[in-house]
């Protein structure tokens, strides 16, 4: 099932490999940033205490 690419085999396969590496790097960076933001959000909500569920506008009306 392997396609004969002739003299372009190395170029095509290295392009595929580079694409896979870039996609994996993007996925890793996205997951890492998501975890970091979630952790910071948890810290901020913990500091706010009771009003963690209220927005600043709601809190100022009472």
From TrEMBL:
Cellular location(s): Cell inner membrane
GO biological process terms held by the UniProt record: cytochrome complex assembly; heme transport
Membrane topology of the entry: Single-pass membrane protein
Protein name listed in UniProt: Heme exporter protein D
Transmembrane region(s): 6-31
Domain of life: Bacteria
Source organism: Gymnodinialimonas ceratoperidinii
One Gene Ontology cellular component annotation held by this UniProt entry: plasma membrane
Keyword Membrane: yes
Function of the molecule: Required for the export of heme to the periplasm for the biogenesis of c-type cytochromes.
Pfam families: CcmD (PF04995)
Keywords: Cell inner membrane, Cell membrane, Cytochrome c-type biogenesis, Membrane, Transmembrane, Transmembrane helix, Transport
Family note: Belongs to the CcmD/CycX/HelD family.
